[in-house]
Design brief:
The complex is a heterodimer of chains A (152) and B (293). Chain A is an alpha+beta fold. Chain A is built from five helices and five strands; from the N terminus they run ββαβββαααα. Chain B is built from eleven helices and 14 strands. In chain B, a hairpin with a 2-residue loop joins strand 12 and strand 13. Classes of the chains: A alpha+beta (152), B alpha+beta (293).
Chain lengths: 152, 293
């Protein structure tokens, strides 16, 4: 069946199985592979995207539930890849293997939109749903502080 | 994929009920879907012909304070509950219980109504609502009815709500009056990602230094989330003292069936956590009751 939704500002119509997770639709049908499959059980955060401005697990949301709504993926943060959070991430070399980082960045961007100047505790709470097996947590925290400073 | 063929997003309760009845048991209600999609994909559920998404029904995605109490619509997410000042003031244990569900991204999608309707023995939001003596509104073809939340659970994952034909539309609880306070705590392994080892909530009303009303809820301590009535009763009629709290603990331990589970905790550990944390939760509720006066 066809589902209409907006991905990164563009209206798209996708021919999907209605019980397909949003993540499948984003990666396999829309061809946006920046969003990663991690656990498939809503536990790790690698698949985080924004739905109507709120950060969510795309592996645990049926694509049908996203019909008529606005999805933002990592590709949609900035056309040139220079969203302040992405810039801070690069400057501090946050990523090690990098697999979880797109989900981390989506959580970080959502946090900064809600709270432009977060404390360490705010960051820990907002990022608690994102797992990094390389243990880049301290650099993630630094990069969020840096992005907050750069934006202000 | 074995999940479902059709997906409906009704705009009204009546439309939701009509659609459900049109499928005659072959459709199921879905809220935020954070458990349902994962369970479906793991093959834990039989396929349905359709899903009926009740998270976007007009008027049911808000929290309001009315003569009936604090009313929470079925589209309200855990995040919205945690951020609501009225719930913080009048039902702090509910805000606390919703704040530990999943991670932030799951709380942005998952709903309290889904947590309650799913009827899992340790649903955190459910435990919080129970201690507030919360009620749920069930809408079906024959109309709507309010039922105490504690009476909706009949087994692990089993609810009196027929999730193929009925919708849990709203939940409500009485706002905290003078001298009332509540608290929640959960013991778990990694923060944010695990099922609870034990979750507990309590609400106390204190008048003239004496407990005049009490409720306690917890899980998993049996097949359903437990409204610990006998233990709560034992608290009433005296001061909020450690001695009194320990009496309640003894009644709880005499009435629960704690299980050893391979991945979570032993029976002994769960029992030790009840002995440790229940008095602390009761003390926190008592302190808040004092502050609310």
């Amino acid at each position: 069946m066809a589902i209409e939704l907006t991905i990164n500002g563009q209206a798209v119509s996708l021919d999907v199985e209605p019980d397909m997770p949003l993540l499948w639709a984003i990666r396999d049908l829309a061809g946006l592979t920046g969003t990663k499959f991690g656990c498939g059980k809503a536990l790790c955060g690698a698949c985080n995207v924004h739905l109507d401005g709120q950060v969510m697990r795309s592996c645990a949301i049926p694509v049908s539930a996203a019909a008529g709504r606005k999805v933002t993926t990592i590709e949609g943060l900035a056309a040139d890849g220079n969203h302040p959070v992405q810039v801070a991430w690069r400057e501090l070399n946050v990523a090690q293997c990098g697999y979880c980082q797109s989900g981390q960045i989506m959580s970080a961007v959502a946090l900064l939109e809600r709270n432009p100047n977060p404390s360490d505790d705010d960051i820990d709470a907002a990022m608690s749903g994102n797992i990094c097996r390389c243990g880049t947590y301290t650099r993630i925290r630094q990069a969020i502080h840096k992005a907050a400073e750069d934006r202000s | 994929m074995g999940g479902w063929k059709n997906y409906h997003t009704p705009a009204t309760v009546e439309e939701a009920i009509d659609v459900l009845h049109g499928y005659d048991g072959r459709a199921r209600v879905i809220g935020g879907g954070t458990d349902l999609l994962v369970e479906t994909r793991r093959g834990l559920r039989r396929p349905y012909e359709a899903m009926v998404d009740v998270s976007r029904i007009a008027g049911l995605n808000t929290i309001s304070q009315t003569d009936d109490g604090i009313v929470i619509g079925c589209g309200v997410t855990h995040t919205e509950i945690v951020n609501d000042e009225r719930i913080m003031r009048h039902g702090q244990c509910l805000a606390e219980s919703c704040s530990v569900i999943g991670g932030p991204q799951v709380r942005n999608v998952g709903t309290l109504a889904g947590n309650v309707a799913h009827a899992l023995p340790a649903g955190d939001g459910t435990i919080g609502l129970l201690a507030l003596r919360g009620e749920v509104e069930i809408a079906g073809a024959s109309g709507r009815r309010w039922v105490p939340a504690k009476d909706t659970f009949i087994g692990p994952g089993k609810s009196v709500i027929d999730r193929h034909r009925e919708v849990l539309t709203r939940m409500r609880f009485e706002p905290a009056g003078n001298g009332e306070g509540s608290a929640f705590h959960r013991v778990m392994r990694p923060q944010g990602l695990c099922l609870p080892i034990i979750s507990m909530a309590a609400r106390l009303k204190i008048d003239g230094g004496s407990i005049t009303a009490a409720s306690i809820s917890m899980g998993p301590v049996g097949p359903v989330p437990w409204f610990a009535e006998p233990a709560a009763k034992a608290l009433v009629g005296g001061p909020p003292s450690q001695e009194r709290f320990e009496k309640a603990v003894a009644i709880v331990l005499a009435n629960v069936t704690l299980r050893t589970s391979k991945y979570r905790a032993t029976e002994e550990y769960r029992s030790a956590m009840i002995r440790t944390y229940l008095p602390l939760i009761l003390a926190a509720a008592a302190e808040r009751a004092g502050a609310a006066r």
